[in-house]
Amino acid sequence: MVSYAIQGMTCNGCLNKVTSVLKRLSPDVRVTLDPPRATFDGLAPTLPDVRSALAETGKYTAAPVEETFAGSVAEMQTRSWLQTYQPLLLIVAYIAVASLAGGGTDPMVWMNHFMAGFFLVFSFFKLLDIRGFADSFASYDLLAARWRAYGFIYPFIELALGAAFLFGWQPRLANVLTIIVMGFGSLGVIDALRKKQAIRCACLGTVLNLPMSTVTLVEDTAMVAMAAAMLFLTHG
Question: What's the CATH class of domain 2-64?
Fold first, then answer.
């Protein structure tokens, strides 16, 4: 599977025209308007071939997805850290405050509620554009990069964990799985940060255009820490 960012598309008419042109290169192409992208599921043509085909239209061109996002990152660098991550911080703050309901100041109850809210809300955003999430996730997650289906399964893993914490189903198992899933996920984040890659963070799917940073790593490791605390202090 190979994806290219398509520049110049603004409407469904553009979408149909680009799809028609690219299907001559491969019948296994999917073109989307949001994000503007062409994804080849089978044998993919090269970027020069795609650009040559689109040149016939005189309006559209193609670029690597990473190159396009790198431009977005450069634009984001003109903003403050708070401006860039404000949407994510607000979502986490809402979950944190809502988690106080029913548990008061009991830290174990609060963590259980927070983890339920976190997984349910974050899985919701991923499921809004599961294909887009899978594409972004595969750019840095160690398993999704080798087995694309994992990108489609992952939101449902989060959804199941959120439901387990919400309804108190098999709390020990839920905590163990959280440590495994989030701990393994953090390895891919660490690798991407080490390589200083300009890639999209897929934590909220494709709804928010957030760059990969230490914020993502803190998010993953915080969930691991809370699951470990609940596992050893509550089920000890």
Answer: alpha beta
